[in-house]
Structure formats: C-alpha cells, structure tokens
Amino acid sequence: DAGVTQSPTHLIKTRGQQVTLRCSPKSGHDTVSWYQQALGQGPQFIFQYYEEEERQRGNFPDRFSGHQFPNYSSELNVNALLLGDSALYLCASSLVETYEQYFGPGTRLTVT
Amino acid sequence: TQLLEQSPQFLSIQEGENLTVYCNSSSVFSSLQWYRQEPGEGPVLLVTVVTGGEVKKLKRLTFQFGDARKDSSLHITAAQPGDTGLYLCRNQGGSEKLVFGKGTKLTVNP
Predict the structure, then answer these.
(1) How far apart are CA B65 and CA B32, in angstroms?
(2) Which of A31, A90, B34, B99 is deepest in the core (most CB within 10 A)?
(3) In Å, what is the CA distance from A108 to each residue of A48, A101, B34, B50?
(4) Which residue, among B97, B98, B100, B107, would best test binding to A if mutated, counting the most A CBs under 10 Å from its CB?
(5) Residue among B28, B72, B26 at smallest CA distance from B49
(6) How far apart (Å, rounded) are the C-alpha atoms in residues B44 and A70?
C-alpha cells in the first residue's frame, strides 16, 4: 500500500517565478493538507482540501493556491516566489472525519 | 490562533538517559497529537491524547495530557540513538486551525 507521495523531491526556482508541487494521498484517503516547514521550525498549515474544495486555510497570502482532483490528488501553486518561500513543503492525507494525518517526505523548494 | 510552545528547543543526551519534553498551549486543546520527524522525512504520528489527565504509553515513550488540557509532556526512558529526531506537538484540528509547535530537536549520542 503506497503511502503519501510528493513530487518533485527538490526544486530550485528564481524569485518572481511560479511553482507547482504535487501530492498523491495514501490509498483510501479523501483529504489533503499542505504545510510549509522552514529550516529549524515546525510545519505551518497552509490549507486543506476535501471534495475538491478548500476546507480550511492558514495565514498564507493569496499567492498560495491549491487544487484537488477527483482522484483526491492535489497541487500546491505558489506565484511570484519570494526568497522567504524557500522551505520544505509537506503534504498530508487523511480521512475527513479523522485527524490522523499521514505525511509525505516533502518537496524541498529553494528560491534564489 | 492557538499558540503552542515546546521546550526545550534542543536536547542532546547520551544513550540510556531519560528525558522529558513539553508542549504548552495558550488555550485549551480539544485534543493533542505528538509527532516525530526524522531528517529528510515527513512527521510520523506517535499518539493522540484526548482526555485531561490521560496517560498513554508507547514502549519506552510515555505521553501525558494535563488536567486542564493546556499542556502535555513526552517522557522517554532509556533513550536510544533511534529516538533521535524532531518531536512536534499539534492540536488535532476540528474547528481550530491546525497548529504545530516549533518542536524539540533531540539527539541521542551512542
């Protein structure tokens, strides 16, 4: 049974560019959450998707947007990248009625 | 937004020692989760505590939820190098926004 997978593993972008990160949830899960983890910090909640709708959102600007597809996979899009967006981006999946989240290994984004 | 403070921020000990790390909240938790994150990996859920005063044991790890549900502790007995990692606490969610603490980075030296 495949767990949560994320792609790509690493990514280097230039300030001002746009980036798309991808996540496939654990089999049977219907809810995907995204987190940003800066070096030496705990993960910060970006948003959560269920039934292709944004269900909850953390304190992130509109430059951060997402999408969930009918197969429950998800994308995180970040526009107008800033140096401060450099971080590990984690995806977690769960069933909507539970909060037992399974995390992927993350995508390491570096903005230069 | 609920704020979670974890202490200590860093902890370096020798194999075989005992240790306790703490998680304190600015408001009451509906429930709390502890995760461990190893380098290059995502966090892995260790336990969920729900009831004030609750104690849960997972092998050498003991988790305690404060009576007032505003604090929690994780105690490790006879630490091993495999316990090395970042220990994170998090509110469970529901009507609250999902919030992690900054974590305690534990290093267990052989």
Answers:
(1) 8
(2) A90
(3) 20, 20, 23, 33
(4) B98
(5) B72
(6) 26
